[in-house]
Amino acid sequence: MNVTSHPADQRITILPRAVFVPEHSDITLDHYAFGYEVVIENHGNETVTLTDRHWVIDHGNGCLKEVRGEGVVGQTPRIPPGDRFSYRSGAVIESPAGRMWGDYGFLSDSGEPFRVKIPSFDLVAPATFRSIQ
Considering the domain boundaries, does residue 90 fall inside one? Predict the structure, then answer.
């Protein structure tokens, strides 16, 4: 599939937000868990379908991992003009601070594939976090 620039890619807004999840984290294992929510807003005049995702996860220790897959959380949502779709997921990194970024693939109802950048967002555990042992 040839991916081209499409006017709709300028009309999609991606709003990510992450929170630290201490109950699923353990500093003795270098295991820092984060939940994140992503809101995808369609400000265009055409319905779009989110087809795939590509994430880059920076573990904050020199390790970068990439994740690619179909849709998000088992869905390939259709987002009509003026509407939004949100979902929650999670990531575990190997240090108390890292970040994530990537892009989503979309298909417009007129058949044009396009990609939209997911803005980078931080994954940061509070400095006061200590695992209960």
Answer: yes
